[in-house]
Design brief:
The structure holds 2 protein chains of 2 kinds. By secondary structure, chain A is an alpha+beta fold. Chain A is built from 4 helices and 5 strands, in the order αβαββαββα. In chain B, about 70% of the residues lie in helices and about 0% in strands. The chains are: A alpha+beta, B mainly alpha.
Chain lengths: ~180, ~325
């Protein structure tokens, strides 16, 4: 009974569309309504601080090397206590593709992706962020991690003084 | 002399009112279609221009008028410029014979609420809907583009095929009303609207009308995913706008024809005649929009098979059976 099936197949969709017409639209009306992105959303890049308030970034250039579009540049410098930091740190957001590879590459969790996605601009030069624009006061996604409490050359504790760290090996003990 | 002038004045006023109402209605039908389609797809549709997007037709009009009016280099210029006008005018002219209310008494004189109550109104409507083919055919031909030409060929074949079943579907109505005048046809439905008396003719007419208006599921002449935009591919600006408006005027006129032939025209309880007429036309228009939101486009061979092998034989059979029954009843 093909014809019955065909007639049913013609009538039934009308009911479906009518039912859907009476449902609430799923549209989010953007400028008025905003959805909250998940914490892992990849948008504006920030530089975080460790729990003590010091900069996490040690200017190792790994983010810059990982960046597929070469939008991160910096100049490393060293403080008097031996702590490395970035003298200047620049991200060109007009180039950035928000892939998150820089955040994955960072050994000190300094560079992180944040869910703040509203950063459009008509002027590309306004999208170039300097270190003071990038640096935030909080720790970002990890509230406890402090690189210099686990490694690093005697900045917080003397060498080998961190709880999960061995002291420097006395190479002479290996001699016969 | 003054009698003639007053009659002329009334006709002019009626013309102005009908023009205004039809064009506004066509513009808002576009908005209604976009909104209803959007709701069927769980969207909001245009809602930014004015309250609930009510000024959207105006914004569209301004956009259309300020766009560049491109005429392709290889196009047949005069035909190209003429075609959109033909499409809109043939649709508009058909409204001359549509009665949209019972005769009105104003300043002690009877005013029939129809521009011109021709005694061959049905033939006039059928003739104009045949002429509407020219808008599509010339537009597609004059563009000198293969997409436009393919769309025009499809449009021609489709309109000619479905016109047959459309005319044949009206025949039972004419047999029952015993008149070609649209006013008489409405008056003949005082007992029962013809949709109850001739349900098969109504279905055939509705399908043919959907095909005549070149809308989904019969929008092969402009099938976007194969022919870019079909016969109006090369048109831009207000010329495209005329084709577009013509399509919606066509929806209104065909909706009024469904109303007049099968739904009892302006007849209805409580509310005044022209309100009933408007409501019925809008209901048919809503059905067209609903159908657009529901059904997928037919394939070209399916369209032709359906028209020639199913609709026309069915309509012919309907004519013969109705005629036989009417003859038997009359004895």
């Amino acid at each position: 009974m093909n014809i019955l099936r065909d007639i049913k197949g013609t009538i039934q969709p009308f009911w479906v569309t009518l039912r859907n017409m009476l449902r609430r639209p799923v549209t989010i009306q953007y400028p008025e309504e905003k959805r909250t992105p998940s914490p892992r959303y990849r948008a504006r890049i920030v530089l975080t601080r460790d729990p003590d308030g010091g900069e996490r970034c040690v200017a190792c250039y790994l983010c810059s090397a990982a960046c597929p579009v070469d939008c991160i540049s910096m100049q490393a410098a060293e403080a008097a206590d031996g702590r490395r930091y970035a003298a200047w740190f620049r991200i060109n957001f007009a180039r950035c593709i928000f892939c998150g590879l820089c955040a994955e590459a960072c050994p000190t969790l300094a560079i992180q992706m944040s869910p703040d996605y509203e950063m459009g601009s008509r002027d590309p030069l306004k999208l170039v962020a300097e270190k003071e624009d990038l640096l935030i006061d909080g720790c970002g996604k990890d509230e406890e991690y402090n690189f210099y409490r686990h490694a690093g050359i005697g900045v917080v504790n003397p060498r080998g003084g961190n709880p999960d760290e061995y002291g420097p090996v006395d190479i002479k003990t290996n001699l016969p | 002399m003054s009698e003639l002038l007053i009659t002329l004045l009334f006709i002019l006023v009626k013309l102005a009112v009908i023009f205004g109402v039809i064009l506004t209605l066509a513009a808002y039908l576009v908005l209604a279609e976009r909104k209803i389609l959007a709701r069927m797809q769980l969207r909001y549709g245009p809602n930014r221009v004015g309250p609930f997007g009510l000024l959207q037709p105006l914004a569209d009009l301004i956009k259309m008028l300020t766009k560049e009016d491109v005429v392709p280099d290889q196009a047949d210029k005069w035909l190209f410029l003429l075609a959109p006008g033909l499409a809109a005018v043939t649709a508009l002219l058909a409204f001359a014979v549509v009665p949209f209310g019972p005769p009105l008494t104003l300043f002690g004189r009877q005013i029939p609420l129809v521009v011109c109550d021709l005694n061959v109104g049905v033939l006039y409507f059928l003739g104009l809907s045949s002429l509407a083919v020219y808008g599509v055919a010339l537009g597609g031909w004059a563009s000198n583009s293969k997409y436009a030409l393919l769309g025009a060929i499809r449009g021609l074949a489709q309109l000619i095929s479905y016109e047959l079943s459309m005319s044949l579907a009206i025949v039972p109505v004419l047999l029952s009303a015993r008149s070609f005048s649209l006013t008489d046809i409405v008056m003949a439905q005082q007992g029962l609207p013809f949709i109850v008396v001739h349900p098969l003719a109504f279905l055939i007419f509705l399908v043919s009308v959907a095909a005549e208006s070149k809308r989904v599921p019969f929008d092969l002449p402009e099938a976007e995913n194969e022919l870019v935009a079909g016969f109006h591919t090369e048109y831009s600006g207000m010329r495209f706008g005329l084709f577009f408006v013509g399509e919606y005027i066509n929806v209104i006129i065909l909706g009024s024809m469904v109303t007049v032939f099968f739904l009892g025209g302006w007849l209805g309880p409580v509310l005044p005649g022209f309100v009933w007429f408007g409501l019925k036309v809008l209901a048919v228009a809503f059905f067209f929009i609903w159908m657009r939101g529901t059904l997928p486009r037919l394939r070209y061979d399916q369209l032709m098979h359906f028209g020639w092998k199913i609709l026309i034989p069915l309509a012919l059979l309907n004519v013969v059976v109705t005629g036989g029954i009417l003859l038997a009843l009359r004895g």
